[in-house]
Specification:
Layout (H helix, E strand, L loop, with lengths): L2 E4 L37 E5 L4 E8 L10 E9 L5 E5 L12 E5 L4 E8 L4 E9 L4 E4 L11 E7 L4 E9 L4 E10 L5 E4 L14 E5 L4 E9 L4 E10 L6 E4 L13 E5 L4 E8 L5 E9 L5 E4 L14 E5 L4 E15 L4 E15 L9 E3 L3 E3 L2 E8 L6 E6 L6 E6 L6 E6 L7 E10 L2 E11 L7 E3 L3 E2 L5 E6 L3 E9 L4 E9 L2 E6 L7 E9 L2 E9 L2
Parallel strand pairs: 34-40
Antiparallel strand pairs: 1-24, 2-3, 3-4, 4-5, 6-7, 7-8, 8-9, 10-11, 11-12, 12-13, 14-15, 15-16, 16-17, 18-19, 19-20, 20-21, 22-23, 23-24, 25-27, 26-27, 27-30, 28-29, 28-31, 31-32, 33-35, 35-38, 36-37, 36-39, 39-40
Length: about 550
């Protein structure tokens, strides 16, 4: 078993090793071959959706934090096309051993980019790439002054083709950080501090950061503050367009408890962040799961999962398997004993090497009705609601500047649980409020309240079905003025799979990209006159 003891040292023990005579060598009768990485704490773990595999690099195995050999530099593939299966790649030319790296997929160049990390004696600020075609590592040279050596957390920003880093820990001098950095990928990769507006999150380590493509922003949750000895449960957003701006979010619902060493992924089908596990001391490891809805008003909800439950753990690894709409969990650190060494309690923890999966479609959100961003034009309001119950009708109600609600129609959910309603009986400059009424057992309830001001002029917008099931992709683009419009379609990893640029008149334009689109989640984006709009589309099998 790979154990880790957490306690203050109160004495040291010297063990003298006896020199023994070497035994005569004998021929080997066989050789053991490992078929999985074994126990791992904080390895690099990145999904390669094009090949339906996850790439694992390095990590700590729990055999002794001061042992150099306990930190690894091996690279493994976890094939997730069916039941997960491991495969090891040769280690020649690999980066030095480490844990707690930042690893992101760069889909444009078909590679993984890795920054930083640490062992018990060394912190890194180097850059490496793993080529997904040749399955080999190579150093990445960058211009500019890099961040100091550190552990950190970060995301790939596909719209601006860059790595964005935040926070982490630097030792020496042993301080938590709240700096924001960027590494541009185009041309010669270049480091620079990312100038941001707003008040940034306080310094923290071992938090999480995900990219929210629908909101074109990064979301930061949790972490540990050394300065205040606090496990944090704040939620922050960093807008990524224009001047990046930090904003602390105040979601409704009950948030997860403060924690470090937890995991977070973005669920693109249901537009939410999933948070799992972590540690919040003194002996408290976690295996709870929460969802933060990111469409409309953000809201936290605790999730309930069936079946055998993974052990409580921190610093494990988790990825979203887009091809199977599931989470893949591996490794981490779990408590196994709380003993005394004569000077106080000692927590003995074991580093794990187990692999778990859970289908996200089997994890509904607790919210029955949640609103998505409305689209308003001078002659139409298009509304969308995400609902958790498919087989029933939803009534649409509207009011204009009063408390009297008028029923204006009813509709049923489309594939994926999206309710859409077009209100064409509107006047430019007027304000309207909408809600749904729906049965909940024997009771009729209202939900999904949203208010809209109808503009006097057309505004840039993309309108697409949230889910299609026939492999087709057709959508509507609205332009406020005549001019060049660049339309792009991106897959879930940020790879641009379609681009079209041409001059168009003001107003609405239907763009039909035909059928035979591969199943998956895509983002349609339009850029016009320095402004952009985007929307998510899920194409089902």
């Amino acid at each position: 078993m790979r154990h880790r003891s957490i306690a203050a040292s109160c004495f040291s023990i010297l063990i003298a090793a006896l020199a023994l005579s070497a035994a005569p060598a004998r021929a080997l009768d066989g050789t053991w071959i490992r078929h999985d990485p074994g126990p791992r704490f904080a390895p690099g773990f990145v999904m390669d959706p094009a090949s339906s595999r996850i790439i694992l690099f390095g990590g700590y195995d729990g055999t002794g934090f001061l042992k150099a050999a306990a930190f690894h530099q091996d690279t493994w593939e976890l094939n997730v096309s069916g039941d997960p299966k491991w495969k090891e790649y040769p280690t020649a030319g690999n980066p030095p051993p480490r844990q707690q790296t930042v690893m992101v997929l760069d889909p444009t160049r078909n590679r993984i980019v890795m920054f930083g990390g640490k062992t018990s004696t060394t912190m890194y600020n180097d850059l490496w790439t793993f080529d997904l075609a040749s399955n080999t590592w190579s150093p990445l040279a960058a211009s500019g002054t890099p961040p100091t050596p550190r552990e950190a957390f970060g995301i790939y920003d596909p719209v601006r083709d860059r790595l964005v880093l935040f926070g982490g820990h630097q030792s020496p001098p042993g301080i938590d950080l709240n700096e924001t950095w960027q590494l541009s990928f185009g041309g010669t990769p270049t480091w620079s501090p990312l100038a941001t507006a707003g008040t940034p999150p306080s310094p923290r380590r071992a938090g999480t950061m995900i990219y929210d493509p629908f909101g074109d922003r990064a979301i930061v949750f949790g972490g540990y503050s050394q300065a205040t000895n606090t496990f944090l449960n704040e939620t922050w957003a960093l807008s990524l367009s224009g001047t990046p701006t930090w904003t602390q979010l105040t979601p409704s619902g009950t948030p997860p408890s403060g924690r470090q060493g937890h995991l977070a992924i973005y669920d693109p089908v249901q537009m939410r962040m999933i948070v799992f596990s972590g540690f919040n001391g003194p002996w408290n490891f976690l295996n709870d799961m929460y969802a933060l809805s990111l469409g409309g008003s953000p809201s936290w909800s605790a999730l309930s999962l069936g079946g055998p439950t993974p052990l409580e753990r921190d610093f494990s690894a988790m990825e979203y398997d887009v091809n199977n709409d599931r989470l893949v969990l591996m490794g981490g650190n779990t408590p196994i004993a709380n003993v005394s060494n004569g000077c106080g309690p000692v927590l003995v923890a074991e580093v794990l090497g187990d692999v778990w999966t859970v289908k996200l479609q089997n994890i509904p959100t607790a919210t029955q009705v949640s609103t998505a961003q409305p689209e308003a034009s001078p002659d139409r309001v298009r509304l969308r609601w995400q609902v958790s119950t498919m087989g029933q009708s939803y009534e649409v109600f509207r009011t204009e500047g009063s408390t009297v609600w008028e029923r204006i129609g009813d509709t049923r959910p489309e594939a994926g649980g999206m309710v859409t309603w077009d209100d064409r009986d509107v006047k430019a400059g007027h304000s309207y409020s909408y809600r749904l009424r729906y049965p909940d057992g024997e009771t009729m309830r209202f939900g999904g309240d949203i208010s809209v001001v109808v503009p006097r002029d057309f505004q840039l917008a993309v309108s697409a079905p949230a889910v299609v099931s026939n492999g087709s992709l057709s959508f509507e683009v609205t332009l406020p003025s005549r001019g060049d419009a660049r339309v792009g379609v991106f897959d879930v990893s940020g790879r641009r799979v379609f681009e079209q640029s041409e001059a168009r008149d003001a107003g609405r334009h239907v763009i039909d990209l035909g059928s035979n689109w591969a199943p998956g989640v895509y983002w349609v984006r339009v850029d016009h006159a320095g402004v952009s709009a985007q929307q998510k589309v899920a194409i089902l099998r």
